[in-house]
Amino acid sequence: MAGKKPPGQRALSQAEKDLWTHVTKDVTPANADNAKFVAALEQLSDDQSATKKRSPKIRAKLPPRELPELNVPQRPPSPPSLAPGQTDMMDKRTARRLKRGQLGIDARLDLHGHVQATAHRALESFLERSFYEGHRTVLVITGKGKRGTGQIGVLKEAVPRWLNQMPIRDWVTGFSFAAVKDGGDGALYIRIKRRR
Questions:
Q1: pLDDT tens digit sequence for 71-93
Q2: Is residue 157 classed exposed, middle or buried when 0-12, 13-18 and 19+ CB atoms within 10 A define those classes?
Q3: Candidates 1.25.40.10, 3.30.1370.110, 3.40.1440.10, 2.40.50.1020; correct CATH number of 92-192?
């Protein structure tokens, strides 16, 4: 295909010409049938290069390619927040018995003497263990706070917040302040989800 070289194409160096001669020395010339096939391939190649050189306006009019739907697992919606005494995720009878302290307590955790960091870790491991051991109702003693000053205890305030954080929230269906016999508002009855 000798002739005028396309604009922007450089001339071959002598080394490139020698390499081409070496590579093609064993090539046999095409017969008439092969010549038709080669001509058809060249025509196809010219058609494809013309398609590639369309103006941006023409390309913009082409319909957008549809992308295949990806099967990406969706995160389940986060469970609703819980507050002391809020027992929407329990049947009414169980909720009433939890608030009155009439359900059997399967395990207890006393957080007296803990600072927030160790109390949080202790609560998380206690509730995880309770969930996997199949406990349904547990008692967590937080303490009431400083007597006489009316100041609310740090853990009494923090534990309900922690019960709404993951992964703890996945193990809990509700909680309520304990009856006086079990510590009153210085303790919480926590209802654990049934393991599926």
A1: 666 666 667 778 777 777 788 89
A2: exposed
A3: 3.30.1370.110
